[in-house]
Amino acid sequence: SFVNVVAVVQHRTHQGPVYPFSALECILGSAYPIHECVVDCSMAGTSTRSRYLIAVQERPGTTNPRLSRLLPGPSRGIEVVVMRMSPRGAVVDFGGKVHLSSARKAVRCLLKELDQRMETRELGTPFLFPPRLCSE
């Protein structure tokens, strides 16, 4: 399911000071590393482009059937958070079904790239997460 969350919350430590704790860790937790990618995506039927920040966290030993419905392929044990970005880089509201459709397209683009990188990766080599992609 899609959650429309735009927040940075304060995290208090037992020592007292307040530190910013990013929204991604609040949503996904901090047990596993979170990887981020910015995906620029064309809007269906227009010349407008939308930009999404997509965060991915591996969850070893699990599968995410929603991702398989979005893009059939290998079993993916990952969780995904998608946030729409303004032209200036701030996180903004999704703003309707057209952006939701575009966000799904952006996630499919990232999943295709990740699948391809995993197929061509040599065993034992580190996996390099793409920092930025462009989807047509």
Description:
- It is a single chain.
- The longest helix is centred in the C-terminal third of the chain and has 24 residues, at 97-120.
- The protein has helices at 23-28, 65-70, 97-120, and strands at 9-12, 18-21, 34-42, 49-58, 78-85, 91-92, 132-135.
- Helices cover 26% and strands 30% of the residues.
- By secondary structure, the chain is an alpha+beta fold.
- The chain has a five-stranded mixed sheet. Strands 1-2 form a two-stranded antiparallel sheet.
- A hairpin with a 5-residue loop joins strand 1 (9-12) and strand 2 (18-21).
Overall pLDDT level:
77
Order of helices and strands: EEHEEHEEHE
- Radius of gyration equals 16 Å
How would you classify the helix and strand content by structural class? alpha+beta
Distance between the termini: 24 Å
Based on CA inertia axes, which overall geometry fits?
Answer: globular
Widest sheet: strand ordering:
6-5-4-3-7
Number of helices: 3
Low-pLDDT runs of 5+ residues are: 1-12
Number of strands: 7
| Helix residue percentage | 25-40%
Proportion of strand residues? 25-35%
Looking at the chains present, what oligomeric state does this protein adopt? Answer: single chain
How many strands, what sense, and barrel or not for the largest sheet? 5 strands, mixed
